Structure formats: structure tokens, C-alpha cells
């Protein structure tokens, strides 16, 4: 079946400046900040290439020239790279829409450009089963800063709530920010309405996909994971391991 072929496409979201990085992103977008001497995006692309990904679309915006000048056509990084610009910062759901032509009839891995994971996880995502989507998760006692992922006994996603407030339903599974999607996701991003935050949320589309009766599987990441959200996390990643 075509669904069982290895995934060879990836979409990376790298349009934002990353204002919490303060002066560190005056001249570069956050995904281009160095970690252990290499841009965050560089670590992601290396891991994807090692997993068999051959084509990478980067969604750029703030200081797009820094990204395109560094990676070019991707040949030096063992992938074919292309770029699309996010003109309006109106949410992650609209960003995924920009990948529709790139994906075509193929599945694709999607990652935020500031998420670092153990590269072995890319190999897992690149060889999925018949599910329509995979949402990676990490176990956490505090999911208030991101998405709470609710699963059933088969570890299928049944609900996804963004930054649950005290008193609201919660979960011990945190949305880790790396996904596998089939083209069916575009049916649901196209229908999105703005959330209470005034944005088109990818998490709303994922929830709707799961509730449509199609299987969305949660996948616990192995090894290290980092959301490079602020200067403190960035500094910690550059400290020598002991």
C-alpha cells in the first residue's frame, strides 16, 4: 500500500523571530541560533536526512535571507530544500496550508524550527503505519505551557487542548511539537476558524481530524528533547555534558 512507504518529505516552521530571545534574534530568526556550533535548523535537517528525508520545505518570514543564504538548495546538507514565505503571522494552522503544494499526495514530517529531539525519532516518524497522523509527546507533570494530549488505552489521540488553565481538564502528555501528517490534514486546516487567541491553530485541526474517525496516534519521544524557547534553555544546551 502507498500509505506504508517511507516518508521522504519534511516541513520546518521557521518564520518567527522569537521575541523571548531578546537581543539574540535582532539579526537572525530563532531557528538559526547556534547550539553546539550549529544552527538549530541544521541539527533538525541533519537528523531528517539521516532518516531518509530527501526534500525539505522551510516556511520562512523574519530574516528569511539568513536561512536561505545558509542552506541554499540543500545540497551541502544532503537534501533538496525549498522555501515559502509566511506573509501574515496568523497561526500555525495557516502555516501548514502553505505546504499543500509541496506535499501533494505524500505524507510529511512537520517540526517547529526550535524543537530539538534525538535523531532516532525522525526514523520512527519516517516509517509510519496506516494512521492519518502522529503527534509526538513527552511525559510531563506540567503541560500548562503547551498542548495537553489526551490518549486512550491504545495510545491514540482523542483530544488536544492548548495551554489548559487551572481547573480545566489536563493530561500528563505534552505535545512535543513534531508530527507526521498525511495530506488529509489539509481538509481540516482549510476549515479552521480563529481561536480565542485570534489565531488559526494547528492543534484544532488535529483534534478535528481525530474526531472525524481517522486514527491519530500519539508517539512518545525517546531520548533528549528541548523546546529552545528562551536564552536560558539555549545556554543550557551549550553547556558541556558531565
**Principal-axis shape:** globular
Number of helices: 8
* CATH architecture designation: Alpha-Beta Complex
CATH class annotation: Alpha Beta
Low-confidence stretches: none
SSE run: EEEHEHEHHEEHEEEEHHEEH
Number of domains: 1
Mean pLDDT: 92
Helix-residue proportion: 10-25%
Q: What structural class results from the helix and strand content?
A: alpha/beta
Strand content: 25-35%
Strand order, main sheet: write it out.
5-4-1-6-11-8-12
Distance between the termini: 47 Å
**Considering the protein shown, what is the CATH homologous superfamily?**
Spore Coat Polysaccharide Biosynthesis Protein SpsA, Chain A
CATH topology: Spore Coat Polysaccharide Biosynthesis Protein SpsA, Chain A
Radius of gyration from the alpha-carbon trace, in angstroms: 17 Å
Strand element count: 13
The main β sheet shows up as: 7 strands, mixed
Summarize the model shown.
The chain is an alpha/beta fold and 242 residues long.
How would you characterize this protein structure?
The chain is an alpha/beta fold and 242 residues long. The chain has a single domain, classed as Spore Coat Polysaccharide Biosynthesis Protein SpsA, Chain A. The chain is 24% helix and 27% strand. It contains 8 helices and 13 strands. It has helices spanning 40-50, 64-71, 92-97, 100-103, 120-125, 185-189, 202-211, 231-238; strands at residues 9-14, 34-35, 38-39, 55-60, 80-85, 108-112, 115-117, 133-139, 147-151, 157-162, 173-181, 216-220, 225-227. The strands form 4 sheets. A 7-stranded mixed sheet has the order 5-4-1-6-11-8-12. Strands 2-3 form a two-stranded antiparallel ribbon. Strands 7-13 form a two-stranded antiparallel ribbon. The relative contact order is 0.18.
